Amino acid sequence: MKKTYHGSCHCGAVRFSAGIDLAPQGRRSTPELPGIWWTATFRCTCSSCMKSRFWKAFVRPADFTLISGGEALGEYRFGERAIAHRFCRNCGVRPFASADFEPMGGAFYCVNVACLDDATPEELEAAPVIYEDGRNDNWDGPPALTFYL
Q1: Total count of domains within the chain
Q2: How far apart are CA 96 and CA 14, in angstroms?
Q3: Looking at the domain assignment, is residue 99 inside a domain?
Q4: How far apart are the C-alpha atoms of 70 and 72, rounded to whole Å?
Q5: Of 21, 56, 68, 110, which is most buried, counting CB atoms within 10 Å of its CB?
Q6: Averaging pLDDT over each range in 25-34, 57-66, 127-136, which range is the top one?
Q7: Measured CA distances, 67 to 7, 39, 56, 64, 136 (Å)
Q8: What is the CATH number of the domain that holds 70?
Q9: pTM
């Protein structure tokens, strides 16, 4: 059920495409790599995701293309500085991030699902979500409350 979606920042300066599987459990394609990261979308309570409302889907580099706007992108790193959080310098929206972690199979992108221009409301509603308690560095468990995410 992997599908190519197109996304952008708010002003449209940054445009990308990404192959993402937003299908619900039971209708998803088999992930290329082992690990939970390739089985759902994620919402997190870390300080960065909370303040920017970043809803992430992990994508392999072969499934991501920056179509335009590379010159409009800024980069923000915090904490261990391992993840390059990209943002549009014009409108401030964070369409994606990138990193390279061996436990996840190497390089990847985190696409902001909220920036997908052609995902239907039905696809967004059906997308499986895993909640991460980043606020408490409990990445393998959900926070006590999730309704606000």
Answers
A1: 1
A2: 10
A3: yes
A4: 5
A5: 110
A6: 57-66
A7: 10, 25, 19, 9, 36
A8: 2.170.150.70
A9: 0.92
